[in-house]
Every structure is written in structure tokens, then in C-alpha cells.
Design brief:
By secondary structure, the chain is of the alpha+beta class. The chain has helices at residues 13-43, 51-55, 58-64, 74-96, 213-216, 218-229, 236-270, 281-284, 305-318, 320-334, 378-398, and strands at 2-10, 114-117, 124-126, 136-139, 143-148, 156-165, 168-176, 189-194, 198-202, 207-209, 273-277, 291-292, 300-301, 337-341, 366-368, 375-377. Helix 6 (218-229) packs antiparallel against helix 7 (236-270).
């Protein structure tokens, strides 16, 4: 089992400068490799360059530019080239599936924030001074950097990454661990219905409130964004404004993650099987297509974009996708089962008689069956239907 750890680093002023130079030089390598691929395809009879061909040139690149490329780890530079190769693989995979993806883009120095080291001990060393009471990580070209290790690392460290978030530096580790002990069985199954008014409702009639961290911080974020817009580009005042804006976003992100972890942990501890709606979140937050006005050349008809934007903002603030990712990871560690079901008509089907109609849900929160008169909270009805559909699917899988 692979588990990730993320720790805050405390670099000195000189080390922070060196870390910034490392990101800059890896960004330059990434952009150079991307330019080579573009030129080869456009000007050399549509020739495709692969990772192996570019990796073979690293020795010459390092010898040609020893002050910038030659000072960093060879394996970390290979990881950067591999990162570009994955971007192209994803690009062609989306084309084959019928999507319209964007071509891999060049990265600005402020948009390249991670350097990977594929193996601990090759260009980096976690806990490089084990006899020192202060945990340190060593990077080639940077030195021994202090780490705020707030919890022990269990298992053997496999990979190490450096990540910049605003004005802060983090080290991200992946460690290989033995499978954890499974939680005892509870005999309970549950269906959940995720929403905006309530973060989720379960089939037992319980509700988890939606904390709306983004909406609560909207005023501060707006003020920070306005202050940033007034600053001159390249000034020290703008750098401080960018840092403040990033700190506010980081706080909201942490609050959202904390809520998702606690909610997922509660479900995993209390239930053996968890069913949820397999929502296509990416499609739900798409902007509506413009509607040209046939009577006015160059004009457009109202398409509900403003209302959709508010809904999209609420969905993003709830963080359903992050929550489901965390739920799957915790369930796998605990030996629980998570089942996704088709979300169609889960909030319109009566759990008593099975009658399905749009009129069964007159309001967002109220469910009233037009056939048998059953009334309940709409989210609870949705969770009950999710539970039943999940049980049917699970029975079919076990058969």
C-alpha cells in the first residue's frame, strides 16, 4: 500500500533562492522539450519525438549548461521529461476518445511549482541527518532543509517531491506500507445523496450540513483580489498581495479537505457498504452554450449563464469530487465497499410505490408522490433510492 505525506519545509533565505532556481531550470527544461516536439512535428515531416529520445540528450544538455542544468539531479530532470510525455499521452488519449483537448502548453516560471525525485537517495535524501533532533531533507544543489514533520512516516520512502504553494515550500513523500488492519464489520449499509443545501443526506434520515467555506471567505477573497489588481506588475507590493491572496485560498482549501476527511471517516467507521450517485461533476459545472439571436446579427439570446455560474460556484465549493476520492481511499484502507449507482430519477422515484415523475418533487427540499401521497425530504428519498439501486447492483455482482 502506498501512502502520501506532506510536510512544511523551513528553508533559509539562501535555500529558498536555490529552490526557486531549481523550479526555474526544470521549467526551462520542460519548455525546451515541448518546443522540440512542436518543431519536429511541424517542420520535420510530422516526426514524433518520444521520452527516450529526449532523455538521451540530457547528458549533452547538462554538459553544455553546467551552471543551470548541470547542478541538479539527473533523475529529477528525467522525471520532468516524463511529466511532459504524460501530458502528450493524455492529449492523444482524449483525441481518440472524441474530446477536444488543448495542446500541452508552455509553463511560466510561476506556473511550474513541482519537481519530482523518483527515488529516495537519488538526488535527494529524506531524513538526511537521523541523529539530529530536527528532521531535514537534502536536495542536490540546495543542501539540508529543515522540515516541520508533524507526524511519523511509516514504511519505506519511495519518492520525494518539492512543491511550492505561494510563499511556502513543502516536501511530499510517498511511502510503501504494509496493509493496515481492517475495521470490524458493523453490518450496516447506507446510501448517500450529495447536494448543495446539505452536503449529504443518508438513507437513515441524517444530514451533514454544507459548511460553504468558499462563500464564507468570499468577501475577504474579493478584497484581496481587488488589492492585487491595483498593484503594478513586478513590484514588491504585488508579490505581497499575491502571497496574501494565495494564503486565503490555501485556508479555504484546507477547511474543505478537513471537512471531507472527517465526513468520509465517519461513514467508513459506521457502515460496511456505502452507495453514492455516480454524478458527472465535470459536465454539471460546464458553462451553457451561447444562443445566437437569429433576428440580430452578432447578438445572443439569454441562456441562463448567470444562474448557472452561481450553481457551478456552489458545486465547486462543496467539493464533491475531492470528497469521493477521499471516501474511496479510506474505504479501501478499512476494507469497506463503495458502490456508484446511476443517478437518473433517484430524486423523482417514490420509495413506497415506485412512481416516477418530475411532479413528485415540487420544490428542492420537498418530495410528494402524486400517486400514493408519500411525503418526505427529497434528499432522503434520493438516498433511499441510491441505497436500493446499490443493493441490486451489488447482488448482481456477487451472483
Amino acid at each position: 500500500m502506498i501512502r502520501a505525506y506532506k510536510f512544511l519545509m523551513r528553508p533559509t533565505v539562501g535555500q529558498a533562492i536555490a529552490l526557486g532556481e531549481m523550479l526555474r531550470d526544470h521549467c526551462s527544461l520542460y519548455n525546451g522539450a515541448l518546443q522540440e516536439r512542436r518543431d519536429a512535428y511541424r517542420h520535420v515531416s510530422k516526426t514524433s519525438i518520444k521520452y527516450g529520445m529526449q532523455s538521451a540528450q540530457l547528458k549533452e544538455i547538462r554538459a553544455f549548461d553546467p551552471d543551470r542544468q548541470g547542478r541538479w539531479s539527473f533523475s529529477s530532470q528525467q522525471a520532468t521529461l516524463r511529466r511532459l510525455d504524460k501530458a502528450f499521452a493524455a492529449f492523444f488519449r482524449r483525441i481518440k476518445s472524441g474530446d477536444t483537448p488543448g495542446y500541452p502548453r508552455f509553463r511560466g516560471v510561476n506556473w511550474f511549482d513541482t519537481v519530482d525525485f523518483p527515488k529516495d537517495g537519488d538526488g535527494c535524501r529524506w531524513d538526511s541527518t537521523p541523529h539530529d533532533p530536527v528532521t531535514r531533507v537534502r536536495f542536490q544543489g540546495v543542501g539540508h532543509v529543515k522540515v516541520n514533520q508533524h507526524r511519523p512516516v511509516v514504511g519505506k520512502v519511495k519518492t520525494v517531491s518539492v512543491k511550492r504553494e505561494g510563499r511556502r515550500w513543502y516536501v511530499v513523500l510517498t511511502a510503501e506500507q504494509d496493509p493496515p488492519e481492517l475495521l470490524p464489520a458493523t453490518g450496516s449499509v447506507v446510501g448517500i445523496d450529495m447536494g448543495i443545501t446539505h452536503f449529504l443526506a443518508d438513507s437513515g434520515g441524517e444530514f451533514v450540513p454544507n459548511p460553504r467555506h468558499g462563500r464564507k471567505a468570499a468577501a475577504k477573497l474579493e478584497a484581496a483580489q481587488q488589492a492585487l489588481a491595483r498593484c503594478k506588475r513586478g513590484s514588491n507590493r504585488r508579490k505581497k498581495a499575491v502571497g496574501k491572496f494565495a494564503d486565503l485560498h490555501r485556508k479555504v482549501c484546507r477547511q474543505r479537505l478537513d471537512h471531507a476527511h472527517k465526513t468520509a471517516l465517519g461513514l467508513v467507521r459506521e457502515h460496511d457498504v456505502i452507495m453514492y450517485e455516480d454524478l458527472k461533476i465535470r459536465n454539471m459545472v460546464k458553462a451553457p452554450a451561447p444562443k445566437p439571436d437569429p433576428k440580430t446579427p452578432g447578438g445572443f439570446l439569454p441562456n441562463g449563464a448567470a444562474a448557472q455560474a452561481g450553481l457551478n460556484r456552489s458545486i465547486a465549493d462543496a467539493g464533491w469530487g475531492v470528497f469521493l476520492t477521499i471516501l474511496h481511499a479510506k474505504a479501501e484502507s478499512a476494507g469497506r465497499e463503495v458502490i456508484a449507482v446511476d443517478p437518473r430519477n433517484t430524486s423523482r422515484r417514490c420509495p413506497e410505490c415506485g412512481h416516477t415523475a418530475e411532479e413528485n418533487r415540487p420544490t428542492r427540499e420537498r418530495f410528494h408522490c402524486q400517486s400514493c401521497g408519500h411525503t418526505a425530504h427529497a434528499d432522503t428519498v434520493g438516498a433511499l433510492n441510491v441505497l436500493r439501486a446499490g443493493l441490486v447492483r451489488r447482488k448482481a455482482q456477487l451472483a
